[in-house]
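2024-03-11 09:14:02 INFO queue: dequeued item Aminopeptidase N, len=80
2024-03-11 09:14:02 INFO validating residues
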Amino acid sequence: YRINYDIENWRRIASYLNSENYMNIHVLNRAQIIDDAFHLMVTGQLNSTVFWNITNYLLREKNYVAWYPMFKALEYLSNI
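2024-03-11 09:14:37 INFO prediction written
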């Protein structure tokens, strides 16, 4: 199931992911956050700015598992 936080918690998550400490969140949880945020954005339940702020951290991400939901999101976006 998807988790939709209130806007303040989404901002906190984005801030933490974009900090030096992002690896303190397990890679599976990082992947799930991206997946949840994307699906909530697509269904209009989350502002797209929040999603893109969350994904900014991927510039430093080296683990494929965390990148996978972003690849799927980009694939989806390329087909609409």
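2024-03-11 09:14:37 INFO annotate: Residues 27-42 form the longest helix (16 residues).
2024-03-11 09:14:38 INFO item closed
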